[in-house]
Design brief:
The chain is mostly helical. Helix content is 55%, strand content 3%.
Length: 627
């Protein structure tokens, strides 16, 4: 379950409005004003015993260790970074290079696993470039922990190693207890959102006209071009959120109890205070995340409606018709079903107050010794171990830059709701200024020292060279920062600088696939070498080139190999329910599945035989059955 908490308002804009949650002191008693009334069902559950000892005594632990579904990782078996990581890169996970934080989390998970009596396998932990307090167990078997957990402020990040152990124990329990095998993934919804994102990206490319210096000159509707850029960002952000597994009340309470059991067995100090603080943050996140997805859905719905009405007119021809289809065919159904699903998701979660009372009651019932470990020794709260990592300059700097990148993402998405292009320009200019960018210019001449000799003219003053671009928030520790810096530059019309940022970003370790696609769409269409370089780099990481089929079309077109381009476009129609097809056709320049623009080469005719738009998008047509 993803746990998230925004940083202070001065550092990053909260994605949705909500009350800031203060971390309770670990030893703070329950407020006398809070009625300790647990519902009868949960009260009865508390009498059954500690969860893990109960399951062990009844031989009810899972019989086999969790394994990701074969079809999930099979496409990436040749990946040099490992199939789970490759899958996450295609899904859009934003990783962060924070080795000390990762090492601490891995050490804790390994220690927690020593208390598990059932079958298991190695569980790996990675850090993500998100400025929130959250973690999630993924269907690939990984645990992802956000960089925000390591905020040095204990009211924002974890307050101690013990609290971090409880957080990791909860996520680890979802894996060990087999919850992921029964969770409902929104695979088709994510594919539909990817289709929408592909359409927006294709429109951004199709609507561009010429470059004057580094200034973007847009043919047609420059407002829609920028909204196309933001629409793709919104769709990919929402798709990422939907990939987070969601669990019902029963599974969340099981993970709470098993996490407590594992942490206590491993010798971590887990009192009522830690449990109270953790559950409050976790429950707060469930509401925050739902509100964010509802807000993103509303923005995307508005953008797709506008795009569907305008795109065929603006881009013209079969490609314009295809883009309109990509948006209009699914947007209303998807939006309606997302809102229904998110409402059901909220309803399925345990009531925060009942969950808190249940967790505190569990501690009192089965761990009344409080600060005494399993071996009888007195436990001490480990604050130093976490503080050492959190206060490292590299950790602080990376977290600050990731937070600024997240602020830009939300700021750009927010501009989509404003119909005034002038206000959008002002908002983008404000973000540019806040990011610290300084325009290049020639400064005043440098004053020379001393006085000139008598009778001689003073020497010519030398001007300093033009100032280089300064400021920004990008960091090689997180590709996300380069992506968002490039998005901000592109929104401001600075295409050359955006290309530079994205080119740097794709070189960062664990750069997600959507960054390569965004960079590819910013390139001039004759850059065959650049396209091939991108494909080669990601082919090594992913072990496959299928997620980059649109870039293969671009490379073939740049090499004047129309047949290869048509064959690759036909593959796009089959890959991931056609989610890349709009992007592929934008590079090709026409839609071979339209009667008016059939394939033009023998290989293309063969590759497109039996294909149609209806068959391509068939897997996405029944959105009412997604959830």
């Amino acid at each position: 379950m993803k746990l998230a908490r925004p940083l202070a308002a001065g550092l990053v804009v909260a994605l949705v409005s909500g009350q800031t949650l203060q971390a309770a002191a670990p030893s703070q008693p329950v407020s006398a004003e809070t009625p300790d009334v647990l519902d009868k069902g949960l009260a009865k559950e508390l009498t059954k015993g500690a969860l893990l000892p109960q399951l062990e005594a009844r031989n009810k632990l899972p019989k086999t260790a969790y394994r990701p579904a074969e079809e999930l990782l099979e496409p990436y078996v040749r990946s040099k970074v490992g199939a789970p990581i490759a899958y996450q890169l295609v899904a859009g996970t934003e990783f962060a290079d924070a080795p000390e934080a990762q090492a601490l989390c891995q050490q804790i998970v390994d220690k927690l696993l020593t208390g598990w009596r059932g079958p298991t396998t190695a569980v790996r932990v990675y850090i993500t470039a998100e400025p929130y307090y959250h973690a999630e167990a993924t269907e690939t078997g990984l645990i992802l922990v956000s960089l925000g957990v390591f905020d040095a402020d204990p009211t924002k990040g974890a307050a101690s190693v013990d609290e971090l152990a409880l957080l990791l124990g909860h996520e680890l329990s979802h894996i060990l207890l087999g919850h992921l095998e029964k969770s409902r993934r929104m695979t088709n919804a994510v594919k539909a959102l990817s289709l929408s994102a592909s359409g927006f990206m294709a429109y951004s490319s199709a609507s561009k006209s010429t470059m004057v210096g580094d200034q973007l000159q847009v043919k047609g509707d420059s407002k829609l071009y920028r909204k196309g850029l933001i629409g793709g960002l919104t769709a990919t952000t929402l798709a990422g959120d939907l990939m987070t597994p969601s669990f019902n009340r029963e599974k969340e309470l099981e993970a709470d109890r098993a996490g407590i059991d594992l942490a206590r067995r491993a010798g971590y100090l887990v009192t009522e205070g830690e449990v109270r603080n953790f559950i409050a943050r976790h429950s707060d996140d469930a509401a925050r995340q739902t509100k964010r997805m509802q807000a993103l859905s509303a923005v995307l719905d508005a953008l797709t409606t506008e795009a569907a009405n305008k795109t065929a007119k603006k881009t013209g021809g079969a490609v314009g018709d295809l883009l309109r289809t990509a948006w209009s065919q699914f947007s209303s159904k998807l939006s309606e079903q997302l809102f229904k699903s998110l409402a059901a998701r909220t309803k399925a979660h345990p009531d925060p107050e009942q969950r808190r009372l249940f967790g505190e009651g569990y501690i009192r019932a089965y761990y009344p010794d409080g600060e005494t470990g399993p071996d009888g020794r007195l436990l001490r709260r480990n604050i130093t171990g976490l503080k050492t990592v959190a206060e490292r300059p590299l950790t602080r700097t990376l977290l600050t830059r990731v937070a600024l990148a997240e602020q830009v993402r939300q700021g750009l998405i927010d501009t989509a709701a404003d119909p005034s292009e002038a206000k959008t320009d002002t908002a983008v200019a404000g973000m540019i200024k806040k990011a610290g960018f300084v325009s290049a210019s020639n400064p005043p001449p440098v004053a020379t020292k001393g006085k000139p000799a008598k009778g001689k003219a003073p020497p010519a003053t030398a001007a300093k060279p033009a100032a280089q671009r300064q400021g920004g928030f990008a960091d090689d520790g997180a590709a996300f920062t380069w992506k968002m810096q490039g998005m901000l530059q592109m929104a401001a019309g600075k295409t050359a600088e955006a290309q530079s940022d994205w080119r740097r970003g794709v070189q960062v370790r664990y750069a997600p696939v959507d960054l390569a696609q965004r960079y590819g769409h910013s390139l001039p269409k004759d850059q065959a070498a650049a396209y091939r370089s991108l494909i080669s780099r990601y082919s090594d990481s992913l072990g496959t080139t299928d997620p980059l089929l649109d870039l293969q079309v671009a490379a073939a077109m740049a090499e004047d190999d129309l047949e290869a381009a048509e064959v690759a476009t036909a593959k796009c129609a089959s890959y991931s329910d056609g989610s890349l097809y709009p992007s592929c056709t934008s590079y090709l320049g026409y839609n071979p599945m339209e009667k008016a623009t059939p394939p033009r080469t023998p290989g293309g005719v063969s590759a497109f035989a039996g294909k149609s738009i209806e068959k391509t998008f068939k897997g996405l047509n029944f959105l009412s059955d997604l959830f």
